[in-house]
Amino acid sequence: MSAPQGRSPLNYIFASDQLRGRDIIGIEQLSKEELLLVLQVAHDLKSNKFDGTQTQFAKGQTLAMLFEKPSLRTRVTFEAGMTQLGGNAIYLEGQLGLRESVPDVAKNLDRWLDGIMARTFDHDTVLQLAAHANIPVINGLSDREHPCQAFADFLTIQEHKGKLEGLKLAFVGDGNNVVNSLMLFAAKIGMHFSIACPVGYEPIKELWELTLSIASGTGSKIVLTNDPADAVRDADAVYTDTWVSMGQEDETEKRLKDFDGFQVNAGLMAKAKPDAIAMHCLPAHRGHEITDEILDGPQSVVFDEAENRLHAQKAVIALTL
């Protein structure tokens, strides 16, 4: 990929080869420098939305979007992102591995297209796609990580707080795929991270231990507690997510009982810093994990996060394809 003639503040992206041709499987595999590069490119793409250079980053390229799990934000932002970067996206839905093996799907797409984005139930599906395709594979969500959401989240925090290092991000709720990506990202860039979750809903042990190991070298303070008030104390940002994720509907009654007391509401936000922001990756179950008062209130940056999915994913596309 070569830069077009003319001067543009975006031309440096053409020369960036740190992630070119790479898979984006999770925050786990990326360095601090690579994480910050994605945020910088996302910021610059957002700030120069109408720069014609944007249409060159994916010109003539096509991205396969594989969806085992439906999503408003993931589909619209990846498809719009490819269009804005001069490329095209093809939407495919259904359970992978039923009619045809995942390796065979990967080998076929590899011959036709320039990249694959997969939103799957099982993280192993993403790994299989990456193992059998030579084109970049982007994890649009799996049960292990949600890296694209993390990019959008940290871009949002950076916009509202002016920095990342040294801030405190608190998560209240289920130690799910979103948490796995958030805590790894925080540890790598020197941000403090605390999570409050009920017993039995902790993050994946392997990733939690990796996070602690990384934090020991970056100065991040990483805390796990069962007390939401303790987690959010003096936090710069308070984050929550649904208590019942897609595929867990049969656990709804038990989960609602287990997460009683873990709602992000005015009382809990009052324990964070006065200028703390409230975050949620959406979709939200209003009145469960978060109240309308907070979601729609002045501290909420929830829809900034949603917007930043577009810019963050455009950065990933521009840097990898």
> How many distinct helices?
13
- CATH H-level homologous superfamily name of the largest domain: Aspartate/ornithine carbamoyltransferase
Record the strand order, biggest sheet: 7-6-5-8-9
Compute the number of structural domains.
2
Q: What form results from the Cα inertia axes?
A: globular
Number of E strands: 9
Q: Could you tell me the radius of gyration in angstroms?
A: 19 Å
Q: N- to C-terminal separation?
A: 9 Å
User: Which whole number gives the mean pLDDT?
Assistant: 97
Flag low-confidence runs. none
Largest sheet: 5 strands, parallel
Comma- or semicolon-separated keywords:
alpha/beta, 14% strand, Rossmann fold, 5-stranded parallel sheet, 4-stranded parallel sheet
3D structure, described in words:
This protein is of the alpha/beta class. 42% of the residues lie in helices and 14% in strands. It has helices at 12-15, 32-47, 72-84, 102-112, 123-132, 147-161, 177-189, 205-218, 228-232, 252-258, 266-269, 292-295, 302-320; strands at residues 62-67, 88-93, 115-119, 137-141, 168-172, 192-196, 222-225, 237-240, 277-280. The chain has a 5-stranded parallel β-sheet. Strands 2-1-3-4 form a 4-stranded parallel β-sheet, sandwiched between helices. Strand 3 (115-119), helix 5 and strand 4 form a beta-alpha-beta unit. Helix 6 packs across helix 7 (177-189). The radius of gyration is 19 Å and the shape is globular. It starts with 11 loop residues before the first helix and ends with a helix.
